[in-house]
Amino acid sequence: MLVLTRKLGESIRVGDDIKITIVDLDGRYAKLGIEAPRNVIIHREEVYERIQAENKAAAKTEKVDLGAIAELWKKKKNP
Amino acid sequence: MADLFDNLVFQKEDIITFPEGIPGFESFKQFVLVNVPEHEPFQWMVCASNRNLRFAVIDPMIVIPNYNPEVTKSQLASLNLSAPDDVMLLVIITLRDNLMESTANFIGPLFINKKKLIGKQIVIDTDKYSVQERVIRS
Fold first, then answer.
1. What is the DSSP string of B64-101?
2. How confident is the model at residue B1 (pLDDT cuts 50, 70, 90)?
3. Which candidate among A41, B8, B21, B82 keeps its CA 20 to 30 Å from the CA of A66?
4. How far is residue B99 from each of residues A64, B4, B93, measured CA to CA in Å?
């Protein structure tokens, strides 16, 4: 991994069209400003990990009775 | 024990391909949507090669009517959409022991090209929604 030290307000360039700036520092938090073309997908690493974890939890359906929740749903909509 | 999908029959034309798989299950790329009348408005998305892998899904608009996930053109590129109407949107349900607490993942909606049967779970990095939105809302 390439490790660079930056001060508040300083930036890093990735390729020709991506610029990442340290816009705020507060204790253990660094706020980053990212300028990138619209077609570049950016998301926080933990968001992807959360999706993976949620999918794994959602896949545990072997003993699940979806009919029961469908009933609950209908009762809620048409009490 | 008999399983709900032991006798599931589907045609090749029913298979939705997720070229990138589903995060967490990247090696499974082919799924079939199954309607069980008693389970409506929920549906099942069952893996074509392993029926034990399946997800309960629902149309997100039924849960949050004004749901509006923001995605970029490049996130949608692999779906090969020719018209916006070709998109079907689903969210994956996580069923809890207390069913009332069951949730749906609103930051990882499934975008499916209904015409070409290509799907993708797209990550929406937003604070507006959560991976665990209550399905049964008061």
1. STT------HHHHGGG--SSGGGEEEEEEEE--SSGGG
2. low
3. B21
4. 10, 19, 11
Residue B45 near residue A58, CB atoms below 8 Å: no
- Report the complex ipTM: 0.92
In A, which residues are within 8 Å of B135 by CB distance?
69, 73
Alpha-carbon Rg for chain A in angstroms = 22
Overall pTM surpassing 0.90 (yes/no): no
Helix-strand-coil percent breakdown of chain B, rounded to 5? 15, 30, 55
Does B123 sit within 8 Å of A43, measured CB to CB?
yes
Residues B108, A69: C-beta atoms closer than 8 Å = no
A59 vs B55: CB contact, 8 Å cut-off? yes
Place of tokens 């006798």: B7
Are residues B95 and A72, on separate chains, in Cβ contact within 8 Å? no
How confident is the model at residue B137, as a pLDDT? 81
**Dist. CA B101–CA B96, nearest whole Å:** 6
How far is B91 from B86, CA to CA, in rounded Å? 17
Tens of pLDDT, residues B62-102: 999 999 999 988 889 889 999 989 999 999 999 988 888 99
